Amino acid sequence: MKLGYSSATAGIYDIDDVFRFAQELSLDFVELTFEISSFLTDVQTAKKVNELQLATGIEVSVHLPFIDLNIASLIPAVRKATVDETLRALEYAQKLNAIASVLHTGSFFLYQPVEQERSVDALNQSLDSLREYDSMIVLENLAVFADSVIKSPEMLKEITDEFAFGNCLDMGHAFIEQQHAWTRASDDLIQDYINTLGKRVKHLHLCNNDGQSDLHQATNNGAIRFSKYRDYFLDFEASICLEVAGGKEAVRQSANQLKSFELALA
User: Fold this and answer.
1) What whole-number distance in Å separates Cα of residue 131 and Cα of residue 119?
2) Interval 151-184: pLDDT, tens
3) Of 48, 58, 160, 233, which has fewest CB within 10 angstroms of its CB?
């Protein structure tokens, strides 16, 4: 497995420090959030990031845009703006030779007096515009709220196969989804996602929470027992991103926990 961390979630914005900290923890990659390129334009330019990759040997993944955007919006102008910004981000990720480009699947606002299927159709239209980047994109499970368009492992699998994308399995999101009425009853929805998506999962997001809110806590601080999935992590051949808030110490704790699973087998 490749182990990395999300710099923006950790609250680290100085790009030199982002890579320096990854080196300190002997991580394999960092996940950059594209929005930073929009409002801090000189912070993580493709040129600078590529120089740091070359100097350190540390790779990158990219989280595609989602702030103030909705790729499944029923409002054409909003959907177009989201697709345009996503295409710009994918071009950026391509310049970095990113190991994964993480895409959210959008929201349907329940107060609108229309069928939710219309948001699914809108999402399909947006994803159709991204087909040339199918090998780079990993669709993330996002059923944290009732207004998420794609709910359940089966829905995510269906749309993933339709567009030949991969998946980002966010275990924290799955754990929250498990607690709420909009999903099917399950004793372990994380395992259901693993079983249903199988090899489609090319990227993992790990953080902990209380089952109600997406708190992005360190993996060793919350209701999820990640040791339960130790064998899955050890067999996982792609990238595992620690998407934890709380600064460097929370990232360090999480990295140490994941590395301890490997040490237990040594």
Assistant:
1) 19
2) 999 999 999 999 999 999 999 999 999 998 777 7
3) 48
Q: How much of the chain exceeds pLDDT 90, in percent?
A: 87
| DSSP symbol at 141 | P
Ramachandran angles phi, psi of 226, nearest 5°: -70, -20
Q: Please check the confidence at residue 217 and state whether its pLDDT lies above 70.
A: yes
Contact 27, 5 (CB under 8 A): yes
Distance CA 95, CA 99 (A): 11
Q: Beta-strand (E) ranges in the chain?
A: 2-6, 29-33, 59-63, 101-103, 137-140, 166-170, 201-206, 239-242
HSE-CB at 118 with a 13 A cutoff on CA atoms is: 12
**Would strands 101-103 and 166-170 be described as parallel, antiparallel, or unpaired?**
unpaired
Three-point CA angle 241, 173, 24, nearest 5° = 20
What span, in angstroms and rounded, lies between the C-alpha atoms of 233 and 230? 5
Neighbours of 61 (CB within 10 A): 25
The yes or no reply on domain 2-263 and CATH 3.40.50.2300 is: no
- CA atoms of 189 and 152, how far apart (whole Å): 9
Q: What is the pTM of this model?
A: 0.96
Q: Residue 137 forms beta bridges with which residues?
A: 101
Q: Where are the domains of the chain?
A: 2-263
